[in-house]
């Protein structure tokens, strides 16, 4: 019988659920989990919670929200003032993605599968992006390099792996840069350090050609959003925008995921 002391930790359970271990390690981890009295039940509950979070807003409802926003796009808009950080990047005025509101938690983003307030670095797990495409059946997880098309509605999530602050941006084949998180302010958002955390908004991909690339920049301390936006703007206009890293200070960690746009 597996003792509580040797019980597989939550971070390992998450990696098993995501299939993010080498085949041999994954098989060994599953075998270890099977020896635990409630191991397989823990895994099933984790996977169920993840599906429930991603399915909290049915695709049909997402489509209705997108269509409603599109119908209002020509309506007069109230004037607003940009913060200094936004003012550094004029191209953000041309938003490349249609924003759709989703239910959110009190911290500003959904939690999938759990909200575990660990403050230590999660050994062996690096910060990463998790992106799902909404569909009529069930959300489809998209890998780096996956095919996508204009009109696809995608849900962005992050795994902080112990980092405490982050920024999520994207850039597309037209060179447009979009800030996804934080929603406002000039400082990086506070991250939930473990688990898969879903942003409170889904996004409809527009008809920009070539690609849509998402970046998750994280750190152990707060940092300026403007640093990431400036780096994304600099990269957006280059031939290597779909593959090269952002030019960032050494204290910032970056992860990216690219969706290939096909006609």
Characterize the structure shown.
The chain contains six helices and twelve strands. The chain is globular and about 55 Å long. Helix 1 (10-18) crosses helix 3 (39-54). Helix content is 25%, strand content 26%. A hairpin with a 6-residue loop joins strand 3 (128-133) and strand 4. Strands 1, 2, 3, 4, 6 and 10 form a six-stranded antiparallel beta sheet that branches. It has two domains: 4-48, no CATH class; 78-261, no CATH class. It is an alpha+beta fold.
Could you outline the blueprint of secondary structure elements for this entry?
Layout: H1 10-18, H2 23-35, H3 39-54, H4 59-71, H5 84-87, E1 97-101, E2 110-112, E3 128-133, E4 140-142, E5 147-148, E6 153-159, E7 165-172, E8 177-181, E9 189-190, E10 196-205, E11 211-219, H6 225-236, E12 253-261
Parallel strand pairs: 5-12
Antiparallel strand pairs: 1-10, 2-10, 3-4, 3-6, 6-10, 7-8, 7-9, 7-11, 11-12
Short description:
The protein has 263 residues and is of the alpha+beta class. The protein contains 6 helices and 12 strands. The protein has 2 domains: 4-48, no CATH class; 78-261, no CATH class.
């Amino acid at each position: 019988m597996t003792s509580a002391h040797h019980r597989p930790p939550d971070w390992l359970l998450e990696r098993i659920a995501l299939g993010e271990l080498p085949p041999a390690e994954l098989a060994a981890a599953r075998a270890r989990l099977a020896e635990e009295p409630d191991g397989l039940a823990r895994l099933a509950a984790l996977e169920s919670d993840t599906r429930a979070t991603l399915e909290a807003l049915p695709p049909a409802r997402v489509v209705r929200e997108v269509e409603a926003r599109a119908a209002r796009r020509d309506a007069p808009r109230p004037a607003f003032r940009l913060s200094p950080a936004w003012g550094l990047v004029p191209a953000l005025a041309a938003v490349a993605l249609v924003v759709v509101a989703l239910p959110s938690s009190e911290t500003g983003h959904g939690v999938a599968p759990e909200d575990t307030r660990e403050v230590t670095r999660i050994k062996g797990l690096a910060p990463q992006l998790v992106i799902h495409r909404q569909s009529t059946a069930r959300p489809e997880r998209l890998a780096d390099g996956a095919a996508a098309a204009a009109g696809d509605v995608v849900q962005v999530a992050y795994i902080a792996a112990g980092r405490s602050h982050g920024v999520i941006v994207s850039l597309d084949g037209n060179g447009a840069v979009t800030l996804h998180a934080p929603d406002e302010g000039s400082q990086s958002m506070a991250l939930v350090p473990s688990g898969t955390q879903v942003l409170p908004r889904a996004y409809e991909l527009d008809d920009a050609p070539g690609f849509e690339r998402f970046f998750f920049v994280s750190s152990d301390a707060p940092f300026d959003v403007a640093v990431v936006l400036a780096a994304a703007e600099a990269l957006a206009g280059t031939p290597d925008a779909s593959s090269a890293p952002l030019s960032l200070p050494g204290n910032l960690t970056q992860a990216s995921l690219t969706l290939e746009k096909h006609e």
